[in-house]
Amino acid sequence: MGTQILFSILAAAAIACGIGVVVNRSPVRSALNLVLVLCSIALMYLTLNASFVAAIQIIVYAGAIMVLFLFVVMILNLDSPEPIPNRMKEQTPLAIAGGLVLAAVIGGIVASTSLARPAHGLPSGTVGALAIGQALFTPYWIFAFEAISVLLLIATVGAVVLASRRM
Amino acid sequence: MHTVPIHVSLSAYLYVSAILFAIGAVGVVVRRNPIIMFMCIELMLNAVNLSLIAFSRYLNDIGGQIMVLFVMAVAAAEVAVGLGIIVSIFRNRESINIDTLDVMHG
């Protein structure tokens, strides 16, 4: 019962703050709403016994990525800009309708699929760094791991080039 | 191994994930500020991550969590490069109005 209440609170917080990201005029407020979404999703990871991923979510997403966003918002001084003229006001209701249809379609797929529900329960105990590392360095994932290291190197070089050169 | 009963079903997590994904998709289409559009993309990525972790838990397969780590690495790389592009555009044009960005018009 307690887990259900916790899940409901976290889900409501995530959805409310997600709407806040979209509707807020100011980018800083959107960013802070996104931090709340990320934190509630991290807590949901904890309820799913994924403690390592929850910690990484807080450190990488709510820490590093959001700091980068706020840094760019501050450096470009976008918080009180001249309002960007919206030339496509008429597409807003259409977009909201499309979003509702998208959510309904995905929800319908979930509802119509018979998801196997383990009758006997699931193992307790959280998945920590040891289990993740042992699974990561198996032949199945090791190629993706190496590829992601190359990708991160390319992104680092690309960001430096973009920031340094006058284009 | 000790087992625990399940209280919240897998589909509950998937519904939340679907709603967050739809909110992000609407945000990308509705907003005209590229930084907020970027944040909405992050929201969509997080929605998918949530469903991956939920599947990983309920199917008792650690692969979902490893995929989430990869998605996070790709998202970090994407944000670094994307925000670099936005800063570079702002330097050249003193504006990041997405509707006037037609330099790649052809």
3D structure, described in words:
The complex is a heterodimer of chains A (167) and B (106). Among the domains of chain A are: 1-79, Up-down Bundle (Four Helix Bundle (Hemerythrin (Met), subunit A)); 137-167. Helices cover 74% and strands 1% of the residues of chain A. Chain A is built from six helices and one strand. In chain A, helix 1 (2-23) runs antiparallel to helix 2 and helix 2 (27-47) packs antiparallel against helix 3 (51-75). Chain A is globular and about 55 Å long. Chain B is mainly alpha-helical and 106 residues long. Chain B has a single domain, classed as Helix Hairpins, CATH 1.10.287. Chain B contains three helices and one strand. Classes of the chains: A mainly alpha (167), B mainly alpha (106). Chains A and B meet through helix 1, helix 2, helix 3, helix 4 and strand 1 of A and strand 1, helix 1, helix 2 and helix 3 of B. Strand 1 of chain A pairs antiparallel with strand 1 (3-4) of chain B.
Oligomer: heterodimer
Summarize model confidence as the mean pLDDT of chain B.
86
Helical residue percent band of chain A: over 70%
CATH topology category name of chain B: Helix Hairpins
Sheet with the most strands, sense and barrel status of chain A: none
CATH class category of the domain at 1-79 in chain A: Mainly Alpha
Radius of gyration of chain A: 21 Å
What amount of the residues of chain A lies in strands?
A: under 5%
The CATH superfamily of the domain at 1-79 in chain A turns out to be NADH-ubiquinone/plastoquinone oxidoreductase chain 6, subunit NuoJ
Number of helical regions of chain B: 3
Which second-level CATH architecture of the domain at 1-79 in chain A applies?
Answer: Up-down Bundle
- Helix tally of chain A equals 6
The CATH topology of the domain at 1-79 in chain A comes to: Four Helix Bundle (Hemerythrin (Met), subunit A)
Gross morphology of chain A is globular
SSE topology string of chain A: HHHHEHH
Q: Label the structural class of chain A.
A: mainly alpha
Query: Termini distance of chain A?
Result: 58 Å
